[in-house]
């Protein structure tokens, strides 16, 4: 009730004032003209206050029943007062004005008839007025008052509509401003990446190529080569400085500072009261996650103001033990049947890219709560990633080293020319990630991968190959490889893949993925036919995949499933990828939904 009163306009208070005038007028008439005792007068004044107040409470529930209560309850009471003294028949006109103000296009016909004809006629007959007087004065006066009230109601609706349009315009202007800023940021980032991956890659290749000419060059040529190498390296340094300037944005290093600034700007431009609270110890996180949370908060604020008509928004940013959680709660209209439109779908897609999740809770007239969650292990800024490069061609390992060490978080701890040396280097250097060729002397990359996963289950291994080989890719993933990529991969894509794998993800070259999925689909059809004949599992799902599916249904994460089944997290992710492919879905939620629908799980 109090929340509704706070949102009243001046004309809502005018209705209350009119009722108070009615109460005072009737009270004065009771005291002056009634023949009742003092005690009965006080009781009647008290009853008048109750009768005039009850419709206000009913109005909060239903407009239709409010008008019925006005006509039946207040109208009957005025008829009763008219029977007591002749001075009261026209006092109902004030209530008629209020009823006219509250009647819309669907209600005014049936509210006008009793207000203009029935109740005034009864009042006129009670006080002894003639039929002609009732027609000329009672009907005409009450009709004029009702029309005035209805006209005033149209004026109120216009005022509310204009106010709503103004609020929506402010929200849209603020939203468009942020979209423009974020689009500029994305374009600057894209340009910086393109410059880095083209000019930077070209200069790096020149440095590597000129370094290889040292052994066959004359002393005079060596000096010239050294000069060219230094020029190229200085050029790389200058490019890095310019790229740093280009990619510098208004987003702060700390997420809380960035989101708080956005909240303050939104509150200032829309007039909505917004509270921001940071819970837990804040850590610096990756730019991608900061940008994702920033966009999610922006979309949540826009939805709360534009669709929910919220006047109060509470924002909480939680840094928990395992997750970063952004919670946005508003007191808006809410919605009974929530549908994921373009805005919410975009939020969900952004969070999925960061291994996060989106939950939205809303009820009609109960506001909306939006919860965005990102795993802390994915979001937190990575320390130096220690890399081991394994390839029997020195030029390739040198080129990879030059490319990777341009990034501040990458550090090459060693290089190996064959599988045995790779195992020895792993023993000594304990790298975080191994980039390894598939075809090598002594031991193949697949053999080394198998041995590495036995000795160091948590070691992340990326296999590099020159040619696409679907069978090889499938075998590599089954052995626990965390990545499978072509040597022709673009440097920027390689860097992003390494970051993703470092955060616990899996990466397979897109061209290989398409072939792998086609082959798995073909195998699935064959297995499905075979399984149907044997009356075994549907969709060609293996017993192990069914175990994983049941654990997913129980709400377990990949890490917990891996611990239960005594497997690596990467292996569980591979099982899930195969499972999703066989079911024809793209994520865990869809897999569980389809499995329940087909009664694979209960």
Explain what the structure shows.
The protein has 602 residues and is of the alpha/beta class. It folds into 5 domains: 2-167, no CATH class; 171-247; 255-379, Heat Shock Protein 90; 385-510, Rossmann fold (3-Layer(aba) Sandwich); 537-597, Winged helix-like DNA-binding domain superfamily/Winged helix DNA-binding domain (Arc Repressor Mutant, subunit A), CATH 1.10.10.10. The chain is 65% helix and 11% strand. The strands form 2 sheets. A 6-stranded parallel sheet has the order 7-6-8-9-10-11, sandwiched between helices. Strands 1-2-3-5-4 form a 5-stranded mixed sheet. The longest helix is centred in the N-terminal third of the chain and has 82 residues, at 131-212. Mean pLDDT is 79; it is low at 248-252 and 530-536.
Spatial order of the strands in the main sheet?
7-6-8-9-10-11
Global shape: elongated
Helix/strand-derived category reads alpha/beta
Helix content: 55-70%
N-to-C span? 44 Å
Main β-sheet, in a few words?
6 strands, parallel
**Uncertain segments of ≥5 residues (pLDDT<50)?**
248-252, 530-536
- Give the overall average pLDDT: 79
